[in-house]
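Bug report

Summary: structure tokens for Glycosyltransferase family 92 protein differ between web form and batch submission.
Environment: batch mode, default settings.
Steps: 1) Submit the sequence below via batch. 2) Compare with the web form result.

Sequence submitted:
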Amino acid sequence: MRLFGKLQLILIVVLLSCLKLFFDFTIIPHDVHLRAKFTKQTHPKPQFSKLTDNLFIFSSFVDTRNGNMGFPFFRIIAIMRFRHYKYYCLFKSRQTHVQIYVMAENHGRLYGACILNCRIPERIIITNSKIALTDGNNKLDIVPTYYITAGSGNSSATYAYNYTICLPFLYGHFYSAKYVIEMVEMHKLLGVQQITLYTTKRKLNNVVQKVLNYYEAESILDVIDFEQPIKDVWNHAQLVVINDCLYRNMGRAKFVSFQDWDEIIMPMQNTDLISFFRNIFNASIASYQISTVYINYDPNYPSFANSVEAKSKRLDTKCVLQPEMVFEQGIHHTSRVIQDHYLALKLPSNKAVLHRYAKYTYTQTFPINTIPLRYTKTLSRNCDMVSKKIYV
């Protein structure tokens, strides 16, 4: 009887171990399970983790899209010192070599943004387990931040948001609380449903923190606490921010635009941006570059209701895209699509332009699109209401 009891105990332990392995590394036959997990749970907040002084990882994702570089992959967005290193991913006892993809706009800094790519072993999809990253001497356990399913990008898919925007790192005292309110309220009038931004909130002034907290509670802002681990990287690790926001919105938003704090996409017809994007995108178009028009700042109007062009020779662009169709997003262009036949196009300026609002000393100005003036009264009223609520 004692022997029989021991055998029962051994069988139970083996069964529990098998069940854990099944739920950690298993096959998901339909991507709907991952999509439900992705959109219904609170979205995770990534942060930097250190493997060595040469490598800091920020976020990671399971990517089952059918890409032109193969699939499925476990991918890691990271900052890396540019030397020749070898890294490996460990899926339980199975090891795969890391393919290092260096992003396009690192501008010769000591550290640069990259994507580490580990081919997921055959018949394994990670659902609830840590994957180890190692250089042979050091090891870091990583839980995937995002899950990108093979069905993402399907026109019939249900998204949590139709349109979101991604903003760069917010720091210092460049933008007042009043300015942030005007920016958010103008985007809301144009149809934006969520804005993702990255900042070290505790370093901002108290009033700006109050504004961010207010809009977080309203679910219009998705604020990621961003503590940059090293200094010698381009523009506050802007490529890490951009590409994390890209992957953060896959399966979550139908359209995503990447722009600065003083910019807004303005359609040339009187329409909201969601309707406009639905008209210009199709199943083959991954992204559009939108030309910038520099707008002279007139303090008599809310910042984003100005519409007088300032003379400028700069020809900057920013992008709006369908995120599931993109592999790497740059600052001013889409660097790489996930399938070679997807298109990255330039949008004609008679369709829409990107207004950039700044103080210029140019004397030669002339009126252009007057649509922003149509929002002035509503924008001013909404901004006043919010300011009173948070005592700005």
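Above is the batch result. After comparison, the two runs are identical; trailing whitespace caused the diff. Residues 161-391 form a domain with the Spore Coat Polysaccharide Biosynthesis Protein SpsA; Chain A fold (CATH 3.90.550). The chain has two domains: 49-148, 161-391.
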